[in-house]
């Protein structure tokens, strides 16, 4: 388990090592091609140090990497922006957001797909402003109105990933408790349920409800997120949210375990069509 930056450095380094060996180069030969000392290449490949986007571009050129999507992903892992700068918009909130939250947003903005189990609250990408305000106020102690407004603003800005081109593909399994918990009062909750139904109809969103009738399930240990990235599954990562920090799991065994758990949850959950009807029924007071 590592923090987000360490995960990205390690994954970037592992990918660069594979690209180098695929190009038939030793670390020393690669270093000579770009005018570096061999130790710099080694530190980057082990994740001991990061690499500037410009330096990464030199390595990718030396390794003959022409795949535009792969280059963009690796450059994002190195901290580069895309042409519109959208991947680093959260840096404007550096003084407000804790590092773990900024790092989660960074992964979310770079991912091509996200699978999430939620057992307590609606996923942030699907929250209304009113619901987000109520959740944030409850979760963060001694919050003044200005900071609360900013955190809600950030929550809503994150939702742009569902409208980007291409959009993030979101698969969410919601425990029925998420829908029954009255956050912000009945009116706020009613609008939140409507928002969920709107989102569930989007082609990039797959929303399923795990009803109480399903009984005990593998997700009882807590919520989790699986981020997947374009071009390679080697960069996938599981995120477990804690009260004061986030844990990042990237070993193949962990990824396999959580992927199997999510598949099981989807199997036992209602279908997307049934889930829509279920949410509508809760909204009608069923």
UniProtKB/TrEMBL annotation:
A Pfam family cross-referenced in the UniProt record is: HTH_31
Among PROSITE patterns, the record links this protein to: HTH_CROC1
- Domain HTH cro/C1-type, first and last residues per copy: 16-70
InterPro entries linked: Cro/C1-type_HTH (IPR001387), DUF5753 (IPR043917), Lambda_DNA-bd_dom_sf (IPR010982)
Q: What is this protein called?
A: Helix-turn-helix domain-containing protein
């Amino acid at each position: 388990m590592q923090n987000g930056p360490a995960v990205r450095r390690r994954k970037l380094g592992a990918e660069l090592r594979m690209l180098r060996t695929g190009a038939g180069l030793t670390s020393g030969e690669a270093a000579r091609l770009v005018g570096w000392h061999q130790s710099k290449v080694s530190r980057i490949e082990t994740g001991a140090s990061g690499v500037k986007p410009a330096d990464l571009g030199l390595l990718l050129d030396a390794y003959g990497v022409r795949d535009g999507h792969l280059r963009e992903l690796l450059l994002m892992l190195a901290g580069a922006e895309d042409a519109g700068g959208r991947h680093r918009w959260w840096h404007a909130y550096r003084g407000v957001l804790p590092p773990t939250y900024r790092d989660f947003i960074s992964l979310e903005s770079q991912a091509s797909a996200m699978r999430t189990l939620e057992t307590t609250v609606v996923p942030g990408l699907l929250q209304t402003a009113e619901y987000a305000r109520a959740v944030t106020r409850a979760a963060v102690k001694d919050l003044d109105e200005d900071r609360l407004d900013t955190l809600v603003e950030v929550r809503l800005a994150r939702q742009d990933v569902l409208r980007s081109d291409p959009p993030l593909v979101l698969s969410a399994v919601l425990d029925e408790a998420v829908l029954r918990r009255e956050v912000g009062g009945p009116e706020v909750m009613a609008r939140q349920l409507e928002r969920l139904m709107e989102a569930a109809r989007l082609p990039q969103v797959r929303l399923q409800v795990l009803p109480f009738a399903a009984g005990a399930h593998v997700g009882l240990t807590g919520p989790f997120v699986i981020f997947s990235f374009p071009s390679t599954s080697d960069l996938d990562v599981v995120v477990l949210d804690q009260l004061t920090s986030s844990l990042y799991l990237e070993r193949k065994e962990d990824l396999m375990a959580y992927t199997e758990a999510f598949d099981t949850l989807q199997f036992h959950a209602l279908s997307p069509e049934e889930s829509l009807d279920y949410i509508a029924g809760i909204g009608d007071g069923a």
